[in-house]
Amino acid sequence: MLDRLITRTFVELADTLVADFDIIDLLHTLTERCVDLLEVDAAGILLVDARGTLSLVAASTEQVRLLELFQLQAEQGPCLDCYHSGQLVACTDMAVEPRRWPRFATAARERGFTAVHALPMRLRERCVGAMNLFRAAPGDLPTPAAEVAQSFADVATIAILNMRALQRSEQIVEQLQAALNSRIVIEQAKGVLAERRKVSLAEAFTLMRTFARSHNRQLSVVARAVIDREPTVGDLTTGHPRPPG
Asked: Mean pLDDT for the chain?
């Protein structure tokens, strides 16, 4: 069963190489699959923007989203080290090694995470970001799980760069920047929808994502429609289907 789910994930990632795809949705799917398949409790992904700095684009939980944002604000943590080195960065017990990233380690433990593994999202010499895998219990990530996680990150990186469609570095930067801009809109829409539907931010994101998929629309387009109160997302914002006609 596990092997089939891993294979299915690779197929989904490979599909993005031959068809139009939503980068934000793809990376959220990747964080969720890592949690489902790889003996980790949470995952987050950071991508580099047009200015060469890292920005959050996906997180499997709200706790991880806040932790990743803290990492960026504190300017210390495994994902930053991983991105700058292009190599795996791991800490099996942040309670034992707090000096490595003192502020990040404290914030991580406060949110229930003890171990972290950051994997580079790299193709040859180009590194576009890093993926963080968090565990509640101390210990190393099993080698098979680490290898699958790195393979997921590699395929996602290829999908992002999409060599056939993006021949010039300027085009690559534009696509990544568009994804990061979309993320800002999505975060704003989460807050708007959470207030309108009286649900949590995590539930609001799930509602938007489900709506986007069922209506074959980009997640960022749905998010903008929520912010602009467009009638086309009336079912989503009110929770009541529109009458026919």
From this structure: 84
